[in-house]
Amino acid sequence: MPVRDLQSRAHVLLAGASSGIGLAATRLLLQDERVTRLHAVARRAGESEALAELRAQHPDRVCLHSVDLCDPKAVDQLVGEVGAVSPTLDLLFNTCGLLHADGMAPEKSLAQLRLDALQRSFAINAFAPILLVQALLPLLPAKAPAVIATLSARVGSIGDNALGGWYSYRAAKAAQNQLMRTLAVELKRSHPRACVLQLHPGTVETPLSAPFSARVPAGKLFSPEHSAALLLQRIAEASPADTGRFLGYDGSEIPW
Hints:
The protein is an alpha/beta fold. The chain has helices at residues 20-30, 49-57, 72-85, 115-136, 167-190, 224-237, and strands at 10-15, 35-42, 62-66, 91-94, 146-151, 194-200, 203-204, 221-222, 245-248. The protein is built from six helices and nine strands. Strands 3-2-1-4-5-6-9 form a seven-stranded parallel sheet, with helices on both faces. It has a two-stranded parallel sheet with strand order 7-8. Helix 1 (20-30) crosses helix 6.
């Protein structure tokens, strides 16, 4: 079962479903017949050939949602669309993230830091994950098992930062960690069977890591499928006692 101790078939929302780890996780979840509905969310989900193929294969199980997670109106519309077909969400898995883009690259020094890069990184990596949960919280069961999992990154660890650089990405992921950890504390009271996880996927062969993959030691560069399988295993094993943890793909604890 995608969520531990879940007694019913699972309704899942996966953000970032059109590429990389998100697409791999979408495919793996659909191999589990206990997933009765999967809401695949991406900025251009309706234009994704891979998602269109999955919907054709599973027309009664896959719902595609084209959503800019930084647009509050679009997120509100998403909530209505999801709620119309899923009475609850048992798993919310956010795989979205931004490290580099046109005109934006990880900073090597303080001199390269720019306000617009900070704002853009925080919008995607810190603000969007927690605001998505806020919007979808009414669909989270109050008394049944549920998991909220978000991709963080080891470089967001303050205690593990010995190399410096990458100011915007490190800071935004650290902010995401704090926001989700705070959510975990609150949900212990209102949703005692829920589990909030921050997950480090390792270095994965995706467009996000492509400019830096040549430096990765042998055996440490994962395929999206391998990383997604490990992350879904962490999610499936998680219990309420694990809420608020920051875990690596292998289940190891990562310092804050």
